[in-house]
Specification:
The termini are close together. A hairpin with a 6-residue loop joins strand 4 and strand 5. It contains 5 helices and 7 strands; from the N terminus they run E-E-E-H-E-E-H-E-H-H-E-H.
Length: 147
């Protein structure tokens, strides 16, 4: 992928978001971390203590259990939605190329909440899970990416 100098790369997963700037060449990107956001990770017991619900039918002896709420996933989804607001802000303030790299589940949520104008401004959307400290592997992947 041709990633021009000064292009921005935003990497998002459920608990962190990193913004990188390409300080290398188009064919040999070198990413420098500009900003990093992390979601505080809490235990499920701190997020909720309710047991899964149960249903009883009055005319029979049938019982059913409800699926328990995944509080961790709710926290990750809330973080990704907050990341969407930051991506919108970056896209509105900068004129550089913008590449989005996100975990597949996070990318689906981002696509659902991103404005059409910002979506059109993205150079690429790449469904890969990269951590906040993975600038070098991310740069290698971007150099090889054909999308």
């Amino acid at each position: 992928m041709l990633l021009r100098k000064e292009s921005l790369v935003v990497a998002v997963d459920g608990t962190r978001m990193s913004i990188f700037r390409n300080i290398g060449d188009a064919f040999d990107p070198e990413l420098k971390l500009i900003e990093e956001y992390r979601s505080p990770t809490r235990k499920t017991s701190e997020l909720g203590t309710d047991r899964p619900g149960r249903t009883f039918q009055s005319k029979s002896l049938r019982r059913a259990a409800h699926e328990p709420t995944d509080f961790q996933q709710q926290e990750e989804d809330n973080f990704v939605i907050a990341a969407v607001r930051k991506i919108e802000e970056i896209a509105s303030e900068s004129r550089e190329d913008l590449v989005l790299v996100a975990a597949p589940r996070a990318l689906g949520l981002i696509r659902k909440n991103l404005s059409p104008a910002t979506s059109a401004q993205l150079l690429a959307e790449i469904p890969k899970d990269f951590g906040a400290d993975d600038a070098e592997p991310l740069a290698r992947m971007l150099a090889k990416y054909q999308g």
